[in-house]
Amino acid sequence: MCRPRGKFITFEGIDGAGKSSHIEPTAAFLRGRGMSVVTTREPGGTPLGEKLRALLLHEAMHLETEALLMFAARREHLARLIEPALERGDWVVCDRFSDATFAYQSGGRGLAREKFLQLERWVHAHLQPDLTLLFDLPPVVAGLRIAVQERGPDRFEQEALDFHERVRLAYRRRAAAAAQRIQLIDANQTREVIENSIQQLITRHCL
Ligand code: TYD
Description:
Elements: E1 8-13, H1 23-32, E2 37-41, H2 47-58, H3 63-88, E3 91-95, H4 98-108, H5 113-124, E4 131-136, H6 139-147, H7 161-177, E5 182-186, H8 191-205
Helix pairs in contact: 2-3, 3-5, 4-7
The chain binds thymidine-5'-diphosphate.
């Protein structure tokens, strides 16, 4: 019997908001409900996408090159992993998607939002996440978390506080404009409280 199309859930937030550590527990929660789940991330998620990620995180480049490579990696990700998984009936839990480009490359870097609306239409006109969990945290607090990470900061984590303030603001504006799809999570709470909120939101919006 053919399974219904899977759901697409994305995690977003400024660097240091702690979203990535909730990806696997969320997948485990869904598997416990009988779902088949694929976890992935952007930029990345495919062999080519992971090569682009290494460049994006560590190589200096023109701001528009950065923006276009984010969408190039996304095109590959959609074609090779996200769309086939959803078609099979798998659920896809993805660490960042296009909201991150609006927040970082438009909000943070200052590139025109219209350009990204065009790219979004080109690359995934008919697909948006079913649910986006936006981990919200003041950049000052997030910065303290990044400072104690073992690995060195990448190009984005190295940006000044005002860059992260603009990214946060852009995320919050986007959430206000898509209030049903994008749900805010106060990331300044314990892991258990956050995990509980994630499960409640998924149950309410997707199950
Ligand atoms: P991140 O999820 O923070 O990876 P990690 O937690 O392993 O460092 O993502 C890497 C960076 O890529 C992050 O700083 C935000 C940036 N990014 C963009 O600037 N635009 C995008 O469209 C995406 C997907 C990510």
